[in-house]
Amino acid sequence: MRTFAATLLALLLTCLFGLGCANRVSPSGGEKDTTPPVALAVNPPNRTVNFGAKSVSIRFNEFIQLNNPQSEIFISPFMKERPDFKLRGKTLTVKFKQALLPNTTYTINFGKSLQDLTEGNPLANYEYAFSTGNHIDSLFIAGKLLNAHNNEPVKDALVAVYSGNADTLFTTTPPAQITRSDEQGNFRVSNLAPTAYQLFALIDKNANYYYDLPNESLAFNNQPITLTDTVPPNPTLRLFDEGLDKPKIMERKNKEYGHIELNFSKQQNSVSVQLPDSIKAQAEFLTETSDQNDTLHLWYRNLPNQNPVAFLVYSDTTLLDTVIFRKTIREQTLQPVKYISNAKGGRGVSNINYGADIWVKFNHPIARLDTGKIQVLDDTVQLNIKGKIAVKNLRTLSISYNWNPEKKYRLLLPDSTLTDYSGQTNDEISIAFAVYAPDTYGTLIVKTLGFNAANAYLLQLYDTAGKLLRQMPLTETIAQMPLLKPGEYKVVVAQDLNRNQHWDTGNYNKRLQPEPVFTPKSSITIKENWETEVEIQLAQ
Fold first, then answer.
1. Cα distance between residue 505 and residue 498, in whole Å
2. Is residue 390 part of a domain?
Protein backbone atom coordinates (compact mmCIF):
# COMPACT_ATOMS: atom_id res chain seq x y z
CA MET A 1 0.00 0.00 0.00
CA ARG A 2 2.86 2.29 0.87
CA THR A 3 4.53 1.39 -2.42
CA PHE A 4 1.37 2.28 -4.37
CA ALA A 5 0.97 5.56 -2.48
CA ALA A 6 4.60 6.48 -3.10
CA THR A 7 4.24 5.68 -6.81
CA LEU A 8 1.04 7.76 -7.08
CA LEU A 9 2.71 10.70 -5.32
CA ALA A 10 5.65 10.53 -7.70
CA LEU A 11 3.34 10.57 -10.72
CA LEU A 12 1.42 13.55 -9.34
CA LEU A 13 4.63 15.50 -8.73
CA THR A 14 5.84 14.66 -12.22
CA CYS A 15 2.59 16.01 -13.74
CA LEU A 16 2.71 19.05 -11.49
CA PHE A 17 6.12 20.09 -12.74
CA GLY A 18 5.25 19.29 -16.37
CA LEU A 19 7.80 16.50 -16.81
CA GLY A 20 5.69 14.03 -18.70
CA CYS A 21 1.96 13.98 -18.02
CA ALA A 22 0.91 17.07 -19.96
CA ASN A 23 -0.33 16.59 -23.54
CA ARG A 24 2.27 17.67 -26.07
CA VAL A 25 0.92 20.52 -28.22
CA SER A 26 2.54 21.98 -31.29
CA PRO A 27 3.82 25.49 -30.62
CA SER A 28 1.36 28.18 -31.66
CA GLY A 29 2.12 31.39 -33.55
CA GLY A 30 5.09 31.53 -35.87
CA GLU A 31 5.49 33.46 -39.05
CA LYS A 32 2.35 34.19 -41.00
CA ASP A 33 2.03 32.51 -44.39
CA THR A 34 2.43 35.19 -47.06
CA THR A 35 3.08 32.92 -50.04
CA PRO A 36 0.49 33.09 -52.85
CA PRO A 37 -0.78 29.95 -54.62
CA VAL A 38 1.27 28.46 -57.47
CA ALA A 39 -0.22 27.13 -60.72
CA LEU A 40 1.20 23.60 -61.16
CA ALA A 41 -0.57 22.42 -64.29
CA VAL A 42 -2.63 24.15 -67.00
CA ASN A 43 -4.66 22.37 -69.65
CA PRO A 44 -4.50 23.40 -72.47
CA PRO A 45 -1.07 24.91 -71.69
CA ASN A 46 -0.69 28.64 -71.33
CA ARG A 47 -0.05 30.46 -74.64
CA THR A 48 -1.57 27.68 -76.74
CA VAL A 49 -2.09 28.46 -80.45
CA ASN A 50 -4.86 27.05 -82.66
CA PHE A 51 -6.93 26.86 -79.50
CA GLY A 52 -10.15 24.88 -79.93
CA ALA A 53 -11.05 23.79 -76.40
CA LYS A 54 -14.32 24.60 -74.65
CA SER A 55 -12.72 25.05 -71.25
CA VAL A 56 -9.44 25.54 -69.39
CA SER A 57 -8.37 23.87 -66.13
CA ILE A 58 -5.71 25.23 -63.77
CA ARG A 59 -4.43 23.09 -60.88
CA PHE A 60 -2.77 24.81 -57.93
CA ASN A 61 -0.46 23.63 -55.16
CA GLU A 62 -3.06 24.36 -52.47
CA PHE A 63 -6.75 24.97 -51.97
CA ILE A 64 -7.79 28.36 -53.31
CA GLN A 65 -10.74 30.72 -53.27
CA LEU A 66 -12.07 33.14 -55.86
CA ASN A 67 -12.41 36.60 -54.36
CA ASN A 68 -14.71 39.04 -56.16
CA PRO A 69 -14.27 37.43 -59.60
CA GLN A 70 -16.92 39.61 -61.23
CA SER A 71 -14.77 42.74 -60.93
CA GLU A 72 -11.29 41.22 -60.60
CA ILE A 73 -11.21 38.91 -63.63
CA PHE A 74 -10.78 40.65 -67.00
CA ILE A 75 -11.15 38.92 -70.33
CA SER A 76 -9.77 40.46 -73.49
CA PRO A 77 -11.28 40.83 -76.02
CA PHE A 78 -14.44 41.56 -74.06
CA MET A 79 -17.00 38.74 -73.90
CA LYS A 80 -20.69 39.58 -73.58
CA GLU A 81 -21.24 36.21 -71.90
CA ARG A 82 -18.67 35.72 -69.20
CA PRO A 83 -17.31 32.21 -68.79
CA ASP A 84 -18.21 30.08 -65.79
CA PHE A 85 -15.50 29.85 -63.15
CA LYS A 86 -15.81 26.74 -60.97
CA LEU A 87 -13.60 25.50 -58.16
CA ARG A 88 -13.23 21.85 -57.24
CA GLY A 89 -10.52 21.00 -54.77
CA LYS A 90 -7.33 22.65 -55.95
CA THR A 91 -8.50 22.99 -59.55
CA LEU A 92 -10.17 25.95 -61.22
CA THR A 93 -12.12 25.31 -64.42
CA VAL A 94 -12.97 28.10 -66.87
CA LYS A 95 -15.81 27.10 -69.20
CA PHE A 96 -16.55 29.36 -72.17
CA LYS A 97 -20.21 30.12 -72.89
CA GLN A 98 -19.87 31.84 -76.27
CA ALA A 99 -18.02 31.02 -79.48
CA LEU A 100 -14.48 32.36 -79.75
CA LEU A 101 -13.45 34.68 -82.57
CA PRO A 102 -11.14 33.24 -85.25
CA ASN A 103 -7.46 34.26 -85.45
CA THR A 104 -7.69 36.16 -82.16
CA THR A 105 -5.42 36.33 -79.13
CA TYR A 106 -7.35 36.06 -75.85
CA THR A 107 -6.11 36.99 -72.39
CA ILE A 108 -7.71 36.16 -69.06
CA ASN A 109 -6.27 38.36 -66.30
CA PHE A 110 -7.32 37.11 -62.88
CA GLY A 111 -6.41 40.32 -61.02
CA LYS A 112 -6.36 39.56 -57.30
CA SER A 113 -9.15 36.98 -57.41
CA LEU A 114 -6.91 33.90 -56.97
CA GLN A 115 -6.18 33.61 -53.24
CA ASP A 116 -5.13 30.82 -50.93
CA LEU A 117 -7.91 29.53 -48.72
CA THR A 118 -6.28 30.09 -45.32
CA GLU A 119 -4.61 33.53 -45.44
CA GLY A 120 -6.10 35.06 -48.59
CA ASN A 121 -2.71 35.69 -50.23
CA PRO A 122 -3.42 36.76 -53.84
CA LEU A 123 -1.66 35.47 -56.93
CA ALA A 124 -1.76 38.97 -58.41
CA ASN A 125 -2.39 39.53 -62.13
CA TYR A 126 -2.00 35.89 -63.13
CA GLU A 127 -2.69 35.66 -66.88
CA TYR A 128 -3.78 32.85 -69.14
CA ALA A 129 -3.37 33.61 -72.85
CA PHE A 130 -4.19 31.64 -75.97
CA SER A 131 -4.83 32.20 -79.66
CA THR A 132 -7.46 30.75 -81.96
CA GLY A 133 -5.03 31.35 -84.84
CA ASN A 134 -1.59 29.97 -85.61
CA HIS A 135 0.31 32.69 -83.69
CA ILE A 136 -0.16 34.56 -80.42
CA ASP A 137 0.29 38.32 -80.14
CA SER A 138 3.28 38.98 -77.89
CA LEU A 139 3.90 42.74 -77.80
CA PHE A 140 3.14 44.82 -74.72
CA ILE A 141 2.90 48.33 -73.27
CA ALA A 142 4.47 48.79 -69.82
CA GLY A 143 4.37 52.08 -67.95
CA LYS A 144 3.45 53.91 -64.76
CA LEU A 145 0.26 55.51 -63.46
CA LEU A 146 0.58 58.55 -61.18
CA ASN A 147 -1.84 60.83 -59.39
CA ALA A 148 -1.82 64.02 -61.47
CA HIS A 149 -2.08 66.22 -58.38
CA ASN A 150 0.89 64.92 -56.39
CA ASN A 151 2.78 62.39 -58.56
CA GLU A 152 2.08 59.54 -56.13
CA PRO A 153 1.59 56.03 -57.59
CA VAL A 154 -2.00 54.91 -58.17
CA LYS A 155 -2.75 51.26 -57.45
CA ASP A 156 -5.62 49.02 -58.57
CA ALA A 157 -6.74 51.28 -61.42
CA LEU A 158 -7.84 49.82 -64.75
CA VAL A 159 -5.36 50.39 -67.58
CA ALA A 160 -6.86 49.79 -71.00
CA VAL A 161 -5.95 49.96 -74.67
CA TYR A 162 -8.20 50.54 -77.67
CA SER A 163 -7.65 50.31 -81.38
CA GLY A 164 -9.75 52.30 -83.82
CA ASN A 165 -11.65 55.46 -82.85
CA ALA A 166 -10.77 55.27 -79.18
CA ASP A 167 -11.97 58.81 -78.44
CA THR A 168 -15.54 57.56 -78.67
CA LEU A 169 -14.97 53.96 -77.63
CA PHE A 170 -13.49 54.91 -74.25
CA THR A 171 -16.83 56.38 -73.20
CA THR A 172 -19.08 53.69 -74.67
CA THR A 173 -17.34 50.32 -75.05
CA PRO A 174 -15.11 47.94 -73.04
CA PRO A 175 -11.46 47.94 -74.23
CA ALA A 176 -9.50 45.55 -76.42
CA GLN A 177 -7.09 44.65 -73.60
CA ILE A 178 -7.06 45.54 -69.94
CA THR A 179 -4.96 45.16 -66.78
CA ARG A 180 -4.56 46.74 -63.35
CA SER A 181 -1.83 48.94 -61.88
CA ASP A 182 0.14 47.51 -58.96
CA GLU A 183 1.16 49.02 -55.61
CA GLN A 184 3.86 51.16 -57.26
CA GLY A 185 1.58 52.30 -60.07
CA ASN A 186 3.31 50.02 -62.59
CA PHE A 187 1.25 48.35 -65.30
CA ARG A 188 1.79 46.02 -68.23
CA VAL A 189 -0.77 45.41 -70.97
CA SER A 190 0.28 42.17 -72.66
CA ASN A 191 -0.46 40.10 -75.75
CA LEU A 192 -0.85 43.02 -78.12
CA ALA A 193 -0.59 43.03 -81.91
CA PRO A 194 1.86 45.16 -83.95
CA THR A 195 -0.57 48.04 -84.49
CA ALA A 196 -1.53 51.43 -83.00
CA TYR A 197 -3.33 51.68 -79.66
CA GLN A 198 -4.82 54.43 -77.55
CA LEU A 199 -3.91 54.09 -73.88
CA PHE A 200 -6.22 54.97 -70.96
CA ALA A 201 -6.57 54.45 -67.21
CA LEU A 202 -9.75 54.51 -65.15
CA ILE A 203 -11.10 54.24 -61.60
CA ASP A 204 -14.18 52.32 -62.66
CA LYS A 205 -17.06 53.08 -60.29
CA ASN A 206 -19.71 50.91 -61.96
CA ALA A 207 -17.54 48.00 -63.21
CA ASN A 208 -18.43 48.35 -66.89
CA TYR A 209 -14.81 48.95 -67.97
CA TYR A 210 -15.32 52.32 -69.67
CA TYR A 211 -15.59 56.00 -68.69
CA ASP A 212 -19.22 57.02 -68.29
CA LEU A 213 -19.66 58.55 -64.83
CA PRO A 214 -18.75 62.13 -63.81
CA ASN A 215 -17.11 60.95 -60.57
CA GLU A 216 -14.78 58.45 -62.27
CA SER A 217 -11.08 59.38 -62.39
CA LEU A 218 -9.28 58.88 -65.69
CA ALA A 219 -6.02 59.26 -67.56
CA PHE A 220 -5.19 59.22 -71.25
CA ASN A 221 -2.12 59.29 -73.43
CA ASN A 222 -1.97 62.24 -75.81
CA GLN A 223 -0.99 60.24 -78.89
CA PRO A 224 -1.61 56.70 -80.14
CA ILE A 225 1.17 54.22 -79.39
CA THR A 226 2.34 52.19 -82.36
CA LEU A 227 3.85 48.86 -81.35
CA THR A 228 6.73 47.25 -83.21
CA ASP A 229 9.28 44.56 -82.44
CA THR A 230 11.79 47.20 -81.34
CA VAL A 231 12.08 48.75 -77.84
CA PRO A 232 8.61 48.79 -76.22
CA PRO A 233 7.17 52.17 -75.08
CA ASN A 234 7.24 53.22 -71.44
CA PRO A 235 4.51 55.86 -71.02
CA THR A 236 3.53 57.67 -67.81
CA LEU A 237 -0.18 58.31 -67.33
CA ARG A 238 -1.51 61.00 -64.97
CA LEU A 239 -4.82 60.15 -63.32
CA PHE A 240 -7.20 63.03 -62.64
CA ASP A 241 -10.78 63.82 -61.67
CA GLU A 242 -12.54 66.16 -64.07
CA GLY A 243 -14.74 67.45 -61.26
CA LEU A 244 -17.85 67.16 -63.40
CA ASP A 245 -20.04 65.50 -60.79
CA LYS A 246 -22.74 67.86 -59.60
CA PRO A 247 -22.49 68.93 -55.94
CA LYS A 248 -25.13 67.44 -53.70
CA ILE A 249 -26.51 68.39 -50.31
CA MET A 250 -25.31 65.53 -48.14
CA GLU A 251 -26.65 66.69 -44.79
CA ARG A 252 -29.29 69.18 -43.62
CA LYS A 253 -29.31 70.37 -40.02
CA ASN A 254 -32.25 72.23 -38.51
CA LYS A 255 -31.79 71.47 -34.84
CA GLU A 256 -31.42 74.99 -33.47
CA TYR A 257 -33.70 77.98 -33.70
CA GLY A 258 -32.35 80.61 -36.11
CA HIS A 259 -29.89 78.31 -37.88
CA ILE A 260 -29.95 76.03 -40.93
CA GLU A 261 -26.74 74.20 -41.91
CA LEU A 262 -26.17 72.50 -45.28
CA ASN A 263 -23.17 70.25 -45.96
CA PHE A 264 -22.24 69.57 -49.58
CA SER A 265 -20.53 66.64 -51.27
CA LYS A 266 -17.65 68.71 -52.66
CA GLN A 267 -16.04 72.12 -52.75
CA GLN A 268 -17.60 74.72 -55.03
CA ASN A 269 -16.64 78.02 -56.60
CA SER A 270 -19.61 79.71 -54.95
CA VAL A 271 -22.84 78.76 -53.22
CA SER A 272 -25.90 80.92 -52.54
CA VAL A 273 -29.57 80.75 -51.59
CA GLN A 274 -32.72 82.41 -52.90
CA LEU A 275 -35.58 83.01 -50.47
CA PRO A 276 -39.17 83.89 -51.37
CA ASP A 277 -39.81 87.64 -51.49
CA SER A 278 -42.76 87.23 -49.16
CA ILE A 279 -40.51 85.77 -46.47
CA LYS A 280 -37.67 88.25 -47.00
CA ALA A 281 -40.12 91.10 -46.50
CA GLN A 282 -41.04 89.81 -43.01
CA ALA A 283 -37.82 88.30 -41.67
CA GLU A 284 -34.05 88.87 -41.70
CA PHE A 285 -31.44 86.46 -43.04
CA LEU A 286 -27.67 86.09 -43.19
CA THR A 287 -25.70 83.51 -45.16
CA GLU A 288 -22.24 82.23 -44.31
CA THR A 289 -20.07 79.80 -46.27
CA SER A 290 -16.95 77.89 -45.26
CA ASP A 291 -13.57 78.70 -46.81
CA GLN A 292 -13.94 75.77 -49.22
CA ASN A 293 -17.62 76.53 -50.00
CA ASP A 294 -18.56 73.02 -48.91
CA THR A 295 -20.76 74.17 -46.00
CA LEU A 296 -23.46 76.85 -45.92
CA HIS A 297 -25.07 78.38 -42.84
CA LEU A 298 -28.38 80.23 -43.12
CA TRP A 299 -29.15 82.42 -40.10
CA TYR A 300 -32.62 83.87 -39.62
CA ARG A 301 -34.52 85.99 -37.12
CA ASN A 302 -37.99 87.48 -36.80
CA LEU A 303 -39.36 84.69 -38.94
CA PRO A 304 -43.18 84.60 -38.85
CA ASN A 305 -44.98 81.49 -37.74
CA GLN A 306 -45.36 80.30 -41.29
CA ASN A 307 -44.51 76.67 -41.74
CA PRO A 308 -42.88 75.28 -43.72
CA VAL A 309 -40.37 77.65 -45.43
CA ALA A 310 -38.77 76.74 -48.77
CA PHE A 311 -35.66 78.25 -50.39
CA LEU A 312 -33.50 77.49 -53.42
CA VAL A 313 -29.80 76.54 -53.23
CA TYR A 314 -27.44 77.40 -56.09
CA SER A 315 -23.91 76.34 -56.98
CA ASP A 316 -22.65 79.23 -59.08
CA THR A 317 -25.73 79.73 -61.27
CA THR A 318 -26.87 76.10 -61.25
CA LEU A 319 -29.87 75.17 -59.12
CA LEU A 320 -28.90 72.32 -56.79
CA ASP A 321 -31.97 71.72 -54.70
CA THR A 322 -34.99 73.12 -52.92
CA VAL A 323 -34.71 73.01 -49.14
CA ILE A 324 -37.85 72.98 -47.00
CA PHE A 325 -37.61 73.54 -43.25
CA ARG A 326 -39.82 74.22 -40.27
CA LYS A 327 -38.89 76.82 -37.68
CA THR A 328 -37.94 75.22 -34.39
CA ILE A 329 -39.09 76.55 -31.02
CA ARG A 330 -36.72 79.21 -29.68
CA GLU A 331 -37.18 78.37 -26.02
CA GLN A 332 -36.44 74.70 -26.59
CA THR A 333 -33.56 74.73 -29.10
CA LEU A 334 -31.67 78.06 -29.05
CA GLN A 335 -28.17 77.58 -27.64
CA PRO A 336 -26.56 80.21 -25.37
CA VAL A 337 -23.50 82.13 -26.55
CA LYS A 338 -20.54 79.75 -26.94
CA TYR A 339 -17.11 80.18 -28.49
CA ILE A 340 -13.87 78.56 -29.59
CA SER A 341 -10.48 80.23 -29.96
CA ASN A 342 -7.03 79.58 -31.38
CA ALA A 343 -5.97 80.14 -27.77
CA LYS A 344 -7.94 77.33 -26.18
CA GLY A 345 -8.81 79.25 -23.04
CA GLY A 346 -9.49 77.64 -19.68
CA ARG A 347 -7.27 78.04 -16.65
CA GLY A 348 -3.92 77.46 -18.36
CA VAL A 349 -2.03 79.57 -20.88
CA SER A 350 -2.38 78.49 -24.52
CA ASN A 351 -0.01 79.43 -27.32
CA ILE A 352 -0.94 80.90 -30.66
CA ASN A 353 1.27 80.90 -33.74
CA TYR A 354 3.95 83.53 -34.09
CA GLY A 355 2.68 86.42 -36.22
CA ALA A 356 -0.95 85.30 -35.97
CA ASP A 357 -3.99 87.22 -34.77
CA ILE A 358 -5.81 85.98 -31.72
CA TRP A 359 -9.37 85.10 -32.64
CA VAL A 360 -12.57 84.03 -30.94
CA LYS A 361 -15.27 82.34 -33.02
CA PHE A 362 -18.84 82.31 -31.70
CA ASN A 363 -21.66 79.89 -32.41
CA HIS A 364 -23.91 82.68 -33.75
CA PRO A 365 -23.29 85.79 -35.88
CA ILE A 366 -22.20 88.91 -34.03
CA ALA A 367 -24.97 91.54 -34.35
CA ARG A 368 -23.47 94.23 -32.11
CA LEU A 369 -20.01 94.58 -30.59
CA ASP A 370 -18.89 97.12 -27.99
CA THR A 371 -15.19 97.30 -28.87
CA GLY A 372 -14.56 99.78 -26.05
CA LYS A 373 -15.14 97.00 -23.51
CA ILE A 374 -12.55 94.63 -25.01
CA GLN A 375 -9.24 94.51 -23.15
CA VAL A 376 -5.91 92.82 -23.77
CA LEU A 377 -3.56 92.83 -20.78
CA ASP A 378 0.21 92.42 -20.78
CA ASP A 379 0.52 91.28 -17.17
CA THR A 380 -1.51 94.12 -15.65
CA VAL A 381 -0.86 96.72 -18.35
CA GLN A 382 -3.73 97.28 -20.79
CA LEU A 383 -2.58 97.38 -24.41
CA ASN A 384 -3.83 99.91 -26.93
CA ILE A 385 -5.76 97.77 -29.42
CA LYS A 386 -7.85 100.56 -30.90
CA GLY A 387 -8.23 99.98 -34.65
CA LYS A 388 -6.90 96.43 -34.38
CA ILE A 389 -10.24 94.68 -33.75
CA ALA A 390 -12.22 93.18 -36.62
CA VAL A 391 -15.20 90.89 -37.15
CA LYS A 392 -14.61 88.34 -39.91
CA ASN A 393 -17.06 85.93 -41.54
CA LEU A 394 -19.96 87.08 -39.34
CA ARG A 395 -18.91 85.11 -36.25
CA THR A 396 -15.19 85.63 -35.64
CA LEU A 397 -13.71 88.37 -33.48
CA SER A 398 -10.07 88.93 -34.44
CA ILE A 399 -7.37 91.12 -32.87
CA SER A 400 -4.20 91.92 -34.79
CA TYR A 401 -1.14 92.91 -32.77
CA ASN A 402 2.64 92.53 -32.78
CA TRP A 403 2.68 89.95 -29.97
CA ASN A 404 5.94 89.44 -28.08
CA PRO A 405 6.90 85.75 -27.60
CA GLU A 406 8.54 86.58 -24.28
CA LYS A 407 5.35 87.89 -22.71
CA LYS A 408 2.02 86.50 -21.56
CA TYR A 409 -1.31 88.10 -22.36
CA ARG A 410 -4.94 87.93 -21.32
CA LEU A 411 -7.94 88.76 -23.50
CA LEU A 412 -11.00 89.99 -21.60
CA LEU A 413 -14.52 90.32 -22.98
CA PRO A 414 -16.68 91.53 -20.08
CA ASP A 415 -20.29 90.55 -19.73
CA SER A 416 -22.50 91.84 -22.59
CA THR A 417 -19.59 92.93 -24.79
CA LEU A 418 -21.39 91.42 -27.76
CA THR A 419 -24.94 90.66 -28.77
CA ASP A 420 -25.56 87.78 -31.13
CA TYR A 421 -28.01 87.60 -34.03
CA SER A 422 -30.74 86.21 -31.76
CA GLY A 423 -30.36 89.00 -29.19
CA GLN A 424 -28.35 87.04 -26.61
CA THR A 425 -25.29 88.50 -24.87
CA ASN A 426 -22.09 86.87 -23.67
CA ASP A 427 -21.00 86.07 -20.16
CA GLU A 428 -17.51 87.27 -19.24
CA ILE A 429 -14.78 85.65 -21.36
CA SER A 430 -11.17 85.51 -20.15
CA ILE A 431 -8.46 83.86 -22.28
CA ALA A 432 -4.81 83.70 -21.21
CA PHE A 433 -2.40 83.21 -24.08
CA ALA A 434 1.19 83.49 -25.21
CA VAL A 435 2.97 83.25 -28.56
CA TYR A 436 5.29 80.53 -29.83
CA ALA A 437 8.85 81.77 -30.25
CA PRO A 438 10.28 81.84 -33.80
CA ASP A 439 12.94 79.25 -32.90
CA THR A 440 10.22 76.64 -32.26
CA TYR A 441 9.51 76.56 -36.01
CA GLY A 442 11.49 75.28 -38.98
CA THR A 443 12.15 76.66 -42.45
CA LEU A 444 11.76 74.92 -45.80
CA ILE A 445 14.15 75.90 -48.58
CA VAL A 446 13.15 74.70 -52.06
CA LYS A 447 15.79 74.62 -54.78
CA THR A 448 14.54 74.02 -58.31
CA LEU A 449 16.49 72.59 -61.23
CA GLY A 450 15.44 73.53 -64.74
CA PHE A 451 13.60 76.67 -63.66
CA ASN A 452 12.29 78.69 -66.62
CA ALA A 453 11.48 82.33 -65.83
CA ALA A 454 9.11 82.46 -68.81
CA ASN A 455 6.80 79.97 -67.07
CA ALA A 456 4.51 80.56 -64.10
CA TYR A 457 4.90 78.20 -61.14
CA LEU A 458 3.10 77.70 -57.82
CA LEU A 459 4.88 76.36 -54.75
CA GLN A 460 2.39 74.38 -52.66
CA LEU A 461 2.71 72.83 -49.21
CA TYR A 462 0.40 70.01 -48.10
CA ASP A 463 0.02 68.04 -44.91
CA THR A 464 0.26 64.24 -45.08
CA ALA A 465 -3.54 64.00 -45.48
CA GLY A 466 -3.41 66.09 -48.67
CA LYS A 467 -4.77 69.36 -47.25
CA LEU A 468 -3.30 72.47 -48.86
CA LEU A 469 -1.63 74.54 -46.13
CA ARG A 470 0.26 77.21 -48.06
CA GLN A 471 0.69 78.40 -51.62
CA MET A 472 2.96 81.04 -53.10
CA PRO A 473 4.18 82.03 -56.57
CA LEU A 474 7.59 80.57 -57.39
CA THR A 475 9.45 83.35 -59.19
CA GLU A 476 13.08 82.33 -58.60
CA THR A 477 15.13 79.16 -58.54
CA ILE A 478 15.19 79.19 -54.72
CA ALA A 479 12.24 79.84 -52.42
CA GLN A 480 11.71 79.77 -48.67
CA MET A 481 8.72 78.88 -46.50
CA PRO A 482 9.45 79.99 -42.93
CA LEU A 483 7.60 79.42 -39.67
CA LEU A 484 6.56 75.83 -40.28
CA LYS A 485 5.59 73.65 -37.35
CA PRO A 486 7.79 70.55 -36.94
CA GLY A 487 6.31 67.55 -38.74
CA GLU A 488 5.86 65.79 -42.07
CA TYR A 489 4.84 67.71 -45.19
CA LYS A 490 4.50 67.22 -48.92
CA VAL A 491 5.81 69.76 -51.40
CA VAL A 492 4.54 70.32 -54.94
CA VAL A 493 5.60 72.74 -57.65
CA ALA A 494 2.73 73.17 -60.13
CA GLN A 495 3.21 74.79 -63.52
CA ASP A 496 0.42 77.36 -63.80
CA LEU A 497 -0.16 77.19 -67.55
CA ASN A 498 -3.12 79.58 -67.60
CA ARG A 499 -1.73 81.81 -64.81
CA ASN A 500 -4.89 81.71 -62.73
CA GLN A 501 -3.07 81.10 -59.44
CA HIS A 502 -4.31 77.57 -58.85
CA TRP A 503 -3.71 74.07 -60.16
CA ASP A 504 -6.16 73.00 -62.90
CA THR A 505 -7.27 69.47 -63.56
CA GLY A 506 -7.70 67.90 -67.01
CA ASN A 507 -10.66 67.74 -69.40
CA TYR A 508 -11.17 64.69 -71.57
CA ASN A 509 -13.60 66.23 -74.08
CA LYS A 510 -11.16 69.07 -74.74
CA ARG A 511 -8.19 66.66 -74.62
CA LEU A 512 -6.54 68.79 -71.94
CA GLN A 513 -4.07 67.14 -69.59
CA PRO A 514 -3.87 68.32 -65.97
CA GLU A 515 -1.34 71.05 -65.35
CA PRO A 516 2.13 69.56 -64.75
CA VAL A 517 3.37 69.08 -61.20
CA PHE A 518 6.87 68.37 -59.93
CA THR A 519 7.69 66.78 -56.61
CA PRO A 520 10.70 65.58 -54.62
CA LYS A 521 11.23 61.87 -54.21
CA SER A 522 9.88 61.73 -50.66
CA SER A 523 7.94 63.68 -48.07
CA ILE A 524 9.66 66.47 -46.12
CA THR A 525 10.45 66.47 -42.41
CA ILE A 526 10.56 69.91 -40.77
CA LYS A 527 12.52 70.15 -37.54
CA GLU A 528 12.45 72.81 -34.85
CA ASN A 529 14.91 75.70 -35.40
CA TRP A 530 16.27 73.98 -38.52
CA GLU A 531 16.45 74.72 -42.24
CA THR A 532 15.40 71.80 -44.42
CA GLU A 533 16.50 71.89 -48.05
CA VAL A 534 14.87 70.00 -50.90
CA GLU A 535 15.63 69.88 -54.63
CA ILE A 536 12.87 69.58 -57.22
CA GLN A 537 13.56 68.90 -60.89
CA LEU A 538 11.30 70.89 -63.21
CA ALA A 539 10.63 69.96 -66.81
CA GLN A 540 13.04 71.50 -69.31
1. 12
2. yes
